[in-house]
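Case study 2.
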Amino acid sequence: MSTLVITYDLGTTGCKTCLYRIDGGLSLVSSAMAQYPLFMTENGGAEQRVEDWWKALCETTRKTLTAASVRPSDIHGISFCCQMQGSVFVDERGHSLRNPMVYMDGRAVKQMKENLGHGLFRISGMNAVKALKTLYITGGVAATPKDPLWKYHWVRENEPEVFSRLHTWMDVKDYLILRCTGVCGMTRDSAHVTFIYDTRPGKEGWHKGLCRMFGVDTAHLPNVVSATDVVGHLTETAARDLGLVSGLPVFGGGGDVSMAAIGSGCLAPFDTHVYVGTSGWVSSNVDRRLLDIGNFMASIFGAIPGRYNYIGEQETSGACLQWVRDHLALDEIGVYLKDRKDLPEQLDGLYALLNQAVEETGPGAGNLIFTPWLHGNRAPREDTHARGMFFNLGMTTGKRQMVRAVVEGVAYHKRWILEAMEKKIPRNDSVCFVGGGARSSVWCQVMADVLGRTVRTVKYPQDIGTAGAAVVCAVGLGLLNRFEDAKPMIPMGETYQPRPGTRKVYERNFRVFTGLYKANRHLFRALNEPERP
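Prediction:
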């Protein structure tokens, strides 16, 4: 029988809502997108508004149903895929106390240093006792100011009135589930990245010793659920807002990394996918906890029982091409910062022109290299001070070469992460490329050439998060016995092979790319480290 489910992908810049039909395959019936703002603060903060999220959910749900001519009563389940490492602080009624701090928020430098940066013995700048204890219990450590643990402390120290009313501290997805059902529950992947959650087999749960060590009140922590658990059912209020029927089961779902692994069909051990959205990452499906402190990579719980996602993150990925669009293209054609009703259509056309510019420019971009660290670096070198740059500009360098250099720079960074990951896992001659970047055949070919390996795609690469959430619904509703059974259901796209003629230039340029960070890290700090009062 055909079963319809609605899934949501709530990311950095917008909400994508998809209606899927599950009937032996996984078919995308209709979808809708709504954008919302991201607010950056001078002290390194990055926030969004819960009402913007909820408005986007409501608007896109109604549009999706209308486009498919589907009745609300035809829907059988709901699940979420959301950005991770956010912090939403709610009171006892479930109302948000302040704007959520999203994963890009890096203002908690002081809190991290005070809690983790002191001690006679240190590992990678961290208190050795605290770091080793955390690593042993959780398999990772909150080693960056952008981690949720330090956001919690930042609010406690800087907004005591807000903190005094805190009832539950949760991630983005978990807040939206609360808004839908009135029930609090955090999925295991989000709990894991707080790094106060015990991930040892047979001992899973909030670790009281770590909470005491890091000053976290266990009363603020929600119940932890699995991806396929029914957290609650859609309330009448939420159903009225969304245009759905009350009583629908709402499944736990997962973060974007967990759902992307499923939606890309990477369901077997060591299946690896490369993601280019606003942010980016490389993730491999593994069957045990893995950790690489030196390269700032660790494994976190996946949605599949007994599996982990071994991941290296890139802070700005597709956002780099958006920067090109806004600052090298829109201003050039006279529409930058102007109120134009036809701008969305122009933007779609601009991306096509940018792809054409990349395709018409030779590999190596005229020996021009771009570093895609517009908001700092994560793996394999954690550095909030790192920034983007064009290296080796010359008199003959043009915008076309600059555009291609940006696309290649993102691919160089993915290779940097992938090769660091393969110190812990077997080398994979084939990877799956997903996310909005994989919609571009040009970017797919660049990725294959730079990585030097086969690149596979799925039919709807920009929808892998919602596809993964749909598989969660299928397993939760009993339509599938296990996640691995979903692999043949996911429609695949094109496959790209590396071109031998590009190898020499990309091998050389990649070596220069990785050397640029080492040569400039002290200069990044000199320019971007906040001045002490």
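DSSP finds 16 helices and 27 strands in the chain.
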